[in-house]
Every structure is written in structure tokens, then in C-alpha cells.
Amino acid sequence: MAISNLLPSARTAFAIWGGLYAIAIGLLTTPYFQRHTIYLNALRFPWGAEYHLPHKYGLSPNKTFPFQLTTSDNETLGSWFILSDDLYQSLPVPAPNPESLVSEACRQYPTILFLHGNAATRAYSARVQHYSAFTSRLHANVLAIDYRGFAESTGQPSEEGLILDARAAWDWLIEQGAKGTDILIVGHSLGTGVSANLAAQLSDENIAYRGVVLMSPFSSISELLKTYNIFGLIPLMKPLHMIPYAANAITWALAHKFDTLSAVPRIKGEVMIVHAENDWDIPYEHSEVLFNAFLEKHLPAIDVPRTPSELSNQDWSSFSAQIDQRKDAKSRLLRHTEIEHLAVVDEFTDSSRDVTLVLLRQGGHDYVGTQEGFQDILGAKFGLVRGGKHAIKE
Ligand SMILES: *[C@@H]1O[C@H](CO)[C@@H](O)[C@H](O)[C@H]1NC(C)=O
Ligand SMILES: *[C@@H]1O[C@H](CO)[C@@H](O)[C@H](O)[C@H]1NC(C)=O
């Protein structure tokens, strides 16, 4: 076929795709579509799940207490409390009703409060793999909740709402007898925005927690939109850079900001940030931005020259000297470890707590926390690997 015959159809296709794209971006500025795009809570994988039967989704029978949690503003959240395998394996056969063991589990083992990402539910297979690893390899209980508007939970998602949900889960664990210092807050993807805000809130109230782990985080939703790839492939906002102010208009219209970066200065507990280099949904640079935000106040400031073109040689040398000082300060502060083929770990201590960045070679987006090698790093950092009762910090 001659190229001239191809051109009109190519042009039509281009016009159609361009039109659809314009509509999609226009819709993104409306609150309804924004909510559905960010939370994707209408995608209830696995479809038609029977949440009262967690063993249908990969957990052992009677290892999980399925229940409904009530939030301070009276929403009802579908929740699973999953026993530490150490406790579960010590039970007689058949195992008793797990509800009767919640309090004992909370007093004897650490608990991971798991705050999942957008789309799907707590019964989604990648998430169940996290619970299995946390309860077996790390000997911890897991509390997994579905935020408002997700799974069978009531209500509609919102930034404030999800933070209330996370707080309700925290309060429930404390009511069951868990100590704050035995609760590790673990967020994944969108859940890192929730986790960081919960950690900041607890820090504001001088409530101690074991730590907060941000897996595949983003620095803020507006930054994320700029780098987000649909299905890990198609950059959402890239074409917008051709239209002046279009990207800014979307950012401005954004009602759900989840600005983790601005929560950073309030977080007083131990922090671990984790990202896989091959995460095609959220680029790992978001984790570096967050880590650098924790680091920033320890580094000497730089006077950025306003008009670089007018700099004299002398100005230049003072400027580059400042940059060198900053690099030196950073390398003095950081403890750098490389575990071949697994991870690069950078860490520093900041007023008696550690901030750690783990860049994993593999793991993608959904499975980033499930590798044994990473679990060991996590367990060692947060005192979970010895197992059994030793895992509880006195
Ligand atoms: C909370 O919600 C339930 C229904 O989900 C309703 O029956 C109850 O009256 C509500 N309570 C308050 C204090 O609003
Ligand atoms: C689970 O618990 C119920 C009682 O709550 C018991 O009848 C059943 O046998 C248990 N199943 C297993 C596999 O332990």
C-alpha cells in the first residue's frame, strides 16, 4: 500500500486518540473522576470475594479473625487480624476461633499494621503474600484493613477519611492490648501517603511506634501524576507538557494531595523507605526525593546564584566548594551497604532514630516487600527476626 493511502487513517487515529486523551485529562479535573482515578476503589479484585473466609485467599484456616472496624466518624471497615505463625503453629488441632486469641497475640508478638495501595482489596493475592511473609518469616501479627469505599467497607474514600481509617486500626490494636512500640506501620504505594500521615499524627501526639515503612512510595500525588505511567507503560502527563499550564491546572484541581513530603518533618520515629528499581508504576526517584527530604536539614545550605551568567570565576569556585562540602557532609553521614544482586542500603541516624533507604534490584511494584532478602533487612532493622517472644521489645 502506498504511503499516501496510509496517511489519512493515521491522521484520523491520531485525532481520535488525541480527543479521547483531552477528554480523559478534562475529566481528571472533576472531583468524581479524580476520586475514582486516584483510589480505583471500584476495582474490587478479587471480584465477589467472601471476606469472612480468608482461607479461600491463601491464609490457613482459623489463622485470621475477620471483623468490622468502626472509625471515629462511624464508617465500617472490613478488616482481617492475622495471627503470627508462631502462635498459630502452637495451637491445638483443630485450632480455636482466632477471635479468642487476638488479645494474647497483640501482647506477645509485634503487629504490622498494613495499609494497602489503591485498587483491589485486602484479599488480593499480592497482598496476601505480604501477610504470609510478615506472619511467618517475620513472626508478626498483621492487621489489614480495607479503607472506606474499598471492598465491603462503607463510605467513600478521601484523604482525611483514609487517615481516620488508619487511626481507627491503630486505636483498635491498642484496645486489644498491643503496645505502640510493638506496632510497625507498613504502607504500600498509595498506602504510604496514609502511613506517613498516621506516623506524623502519632509523632505530634508523642505516641511511640516501632517504625514506619514506606514501600513504593510517591513524594506527593501532584509529583506522581507528572511521572505516573498507566499500566506501567504510558506516561499520563507527558503529552501535557506541550500545552502551557495544562499540567499545573490538573495539579491545582487536585483535591487528594497525599503530600508525603510535607509530612516528613513531623515524623519522629524510625523510617524505612523501600523501592524496586524496576517499579514501572512509580519511579524509584520518588523514594530518593523522600529520603533526601529527611537528610536535608543535616546538610549545609547552598547559596544558589540568581544569575549564573553573571558569575565571576571567584563566585564559581565558592559555589562549587559549597557543593563539595555538601557531598562530603552527605558521605560522612550516610552508612552505605551494597548486597550484590539484591539491594543498595543507605542509612543515617538523626536524633536517635534511623532513616533507611533500600533500593531493591528487583520486585516491581506489587511484590516489592515480599522477597526474603528484603524481609531479612526489614526484620533486622525493626527487631522482628529472632522470632517468638524475643521479638517483643521490653
Ligand atoms: C453509625 O452507623 C450505623 C449504620 O452503619 C447507624 O445505625 C448508627 O446509628 C450510626 N451511629 C452514629 C453515632 O451515627
Ligand atoms: C476452626 O475453628 C472452628 C471453631 O471456631 C472449628 O470448628 C474448626 O474445626 C477449626 N478448623 C481448623 C482447620 O482448625
Describe the structure.
Residues 110-223 form the AB hydrolase-1 domain. It comes from Cylindrobasidium torrendii FP15055 ss-10. The chain has 394 residues and is an alpha/beta fold. The protein has one domain (37-381): Rossmann fold. Helices cover 39% and strands 17% of the residues. It contains 13 helices and 12 strands. The chain has helices spanning 3-28, 31-39, 85-89, 102-108, 125-136, 159-175, 190-204, 221-227, 246-253, 260-263, 285-295, 313-333, 372-381; strands at residues 64-70, 76-82, 111-115, 141-145, 183-188, 211-215, 229-230, 234-235, 271-276, 335-339, 343-350, 353-360. The strands form 2 sheets. A 10-stranded mixed sheet has the order 1-2-4-3-5-6-9-12-11-10, sandwiched between helices. The longest helix is centred in the N-terminal third of the chain and has 26 residues, at 3-28. The protein is globular and about 80 Å long. The structure holds 2-acetamido-2-deoxy-beta-D-glucopyranose (2 copies). One 2-acetamido-2-deoxy-beta-D-glucopyranose (NAG) binds at residues 74, 76. One 2-acetamido-2-deoxy-beta-D-glucopyranose is lined by residues 61-62, 94-95, 97.
Element string (H = helix, E = strand): HHEEHHEHEHEHEHEEHHEHHEEEH
Largest sheet: 10 strands, mixed
Q: Which molecules are bound in this entry?
A: 2-acetamido-2-deoxy-beta-D-glucopyranose
- The count of β-strands is 12
User: Which percent range fits the helix content?
Assistant: 25-40%
